[in-house]
Specification:
about 30% strand; 7 strands; about 120 residues; globular; alpha+beta; five-stranded mixed beta sheet; single chain
C-alpha cells in the first residue's frame, strides 16, 4: 500500500476519534478508539508493539513500545499533552530508525482542531 494513502487513512481514523471524543482524555483512551477505527477500516495494525534495541548484535528488551504500527508501514505515536516537545519528535524518529519503518505520524489529541496536532515524518 502506498504510504501517503496509508497515512491519509490513519489520519482519517484519528480525526474520527477526535471528532467523537474531543481533547482532554488519556492517551490510552485515544489508542483504544483509534484501534477500533483502524479495524473498522480493515487496516492491519499492532498496538503497544515491543521494540527491542539492537546492541552489538544482541536484541535487548528495553521496555520501549510503539503505540501503533499500521500495515507494517506507518508508526503512530500518540500523545495527549499540552504541547508537543522536541523530545516527542526525537522519540518517534528513534522508533522509526530502530524499527526500519520509514513513515511516522505523531498525533497529539489534546488540541481543539486535530490537524494542529498531527506531524508526519519520513526517513
Amino acid at each position: 500500500m502506498e504510504f501517503d494513502k496509508l497515512s491519509g487513512q490513519v489520519i482519517g481514523c484519528a480525526i474520527e476519534v477526535h471528532k467523537n471524543l474531543g481533547p482532554g482524555l488519556l492517551e490510552s483512551a485515544y489508542e483504544r478508539c483509534l484501534s477500533y477505527e483502524l479495524t473498522a477500516e480493515g487496516l492491519r495494525h499492532e498496538v503497544q508493539k515491543e521494540l527491542p534495541i539492537d546492541y552489538k548484535g544482541l536484541k535487548l528488551d528495553s521496555g520501549y513500545r510503539i503505540d501503533v504500527i499500521v500495515e507494517n508501514g506507518v508508526i503512530v505515536e500518540l500523545k495527549s499533552v499540552e504541547k508537543v516537545l522536541p523530545i516527542h519528535e526525537a522519540q518517534i524518529l528513534t522508533y522509526m530508525k530502530l524499527s526500519g519503518i520509514k513513515v511516522g505520524l505523531l498525533i497529539n489529541f489534546n488540541v481543539i482542531k486535530l490537524k494542529e496536532g498531527i506531524k508526519r515524518f519520513v526517513l
